[in-house]
Specification:
With 310 residues, the chain is of the alpha/beta class. Helix content is 52%, strand content 9%. The chain has a six-stranded parallel beta sheet with strand order 3-2-4-1-5-6, with helices on both faces. Helix 11 crosses helix 12 and helix 12 runs antiparallel to helix 13. It is globular. It binds one RNA strand of 72 nucleotides through helix 3, helix 4, helix 8 and helix 13.
RNA sequence: GGCGGCGUAGCCAAGUGGUAAGGCAGAGCUCUGCAAAAGCUUUAUUCAUCAGUUCGAUUCUGAUCGCCGCCU
């Protein structure tokens, strides 16, 4: 019987009201538990600019994989997929319904369509390769890759150093080109096919305004102070956590590289650009069910209800 | 009022007597262990306006309008 049970995912651009509609869904089901699917909300200690739900917003609904990793750790999509899979099994074992909520499409994908069985990230190697980029440029890395794994190199733009680095990393650790390993994807988990994905699609112009307003609020609420303290406690600027929206720009401000005003404006810009990429990510996935509007609007929640009743 | 400078896409900005660089924004997209990351594509039939010179003007000339600076 578990076989027929649904698992839900609420995705969509940042600031579209995923939290609200996710909680609403959990309450409606009566036994929903939320699993965070956001690559930044997993971190502890970074709070103000992460849009994590407050206790009040949670309305008593259990939330998982939120606030559970130290900001000094560089967490990855593969790790999240593993953790989320375990959570799903755990929640279902107590007879409840898992609801994945978050905007990181890559994470959700890692869960539903697992990566190939590749090596973990090699921090030291990445550090060295990063230095190479600084000295000789991203294109140089791409040239190295085209010697050891021409197939992968051909698929990547020379400037795309993040993926180039991973391909090099895979080769150095396994001795095999990534292009050879990649087609051997791991089998999707049993529950993959039971995940129903709903994506929020609010009007773009209003979303952008919302994003701007929210960024200003974060700064007003003491974002600069929060970052200052984290840095004083030794959290490096290069950490994933301090690379999050807002944090990244505040670090630049604290390093004297930009004014506070420009940190605020750039943050708004960053988040607006990001929200657009999120929409791009989900737009052509045919398994996604689109809900027009913001998640906190009754009309949007009504659309969701209609799907549930079917 | 006089003199000088400027007026190129939503913004910043280069440029030439021969058919408008670039950046940002916007739009579209990619994504196989950093993904709130990284990368890709696209965007002015037109250079304030009008008239003139010219085979041809955004570029030269004149006038008009607007902005900025200095002087009185």
């Amino acid at each position: 019987m578990i076989k027929n049970r649904s698992i839900y995912a609420i995705v969509g651009p940042t600031a579209s009201g995923k939290t609200e509609i996710g909680v609403e869904l959990a309450l409606r089901l009566g036994n929903g538990e939320i699993i965070n699917c956001d690559s930044v909300q997993i971190y502890q200690q970074i709070q103000i600019a992460t849009a994590k739900p407050s206790e009040e917003e949670k309305k008593g609904v259990p939330h998982h994989l939120i606030d559970y990793v130290s900001p000094e750790i560089d967490y990855t999509a593969a790790k999240w997929a593993e953790d989320a899979a375990n959570k799903i099994v755990e929640i279902e074992s107590r007879g409840n319904v898992p609801i994945l909520v978050g905007g990181t499409g890559f994470y959700l994908r890692a869960l539903r369509e697992p990566f190939f069985d590749g090596p973990k990230a090699d921090k030291e190697l990445r550090k060295r390769l990063t230095k190479t980029i600084e000295k000789k440029g991203a294109e140089h890395l791409h040239k190295i890759l085209s010697r050891i794994d021409p197939k992968s190199a051909a698929k990547l733009f020379p400037k795309d150093y993040v993926r180039t680095m991973r391909a090099i990393e895979v080769y150095f650790q396994t001795g095999k080109p990534m292009s050879e390993l990649q087609p051997k994807r791991l089998d999707p988990p049993e529950f993959a096919g039971r995940i129903k994905i709903f994506a929020l699609n609010p009007p773009r112009d209003i979303l952008y305004k919302q994003i701007n307003t929210r960024a200003e609020k974060h700064f007003r609420n003491g974002l600069v102070e929060e970052v200052r303290k984290l840095r004083e406690h030794g959290l490096p600027d290069e950490s994933n956590a301090l690379g999050a929206h807002g944090y990244r720009r505040v670090c630049e401000y604290l390093r004297g590289e930009r004014t506070l005003e420009s940190a605020i404006e750039q943050t708004k810009q960053d988040v607006r650009n990001y929200s657009k990429r999120q929409i791009s990510w989900f737009r052509h996935k045919e398994e996604v069910i689109w809900l027009d509007g913001f998640g906190n609007e009754p009309a949007t929640q009504q659309q969701l209800r209609e799907y549930l009743d079917q």
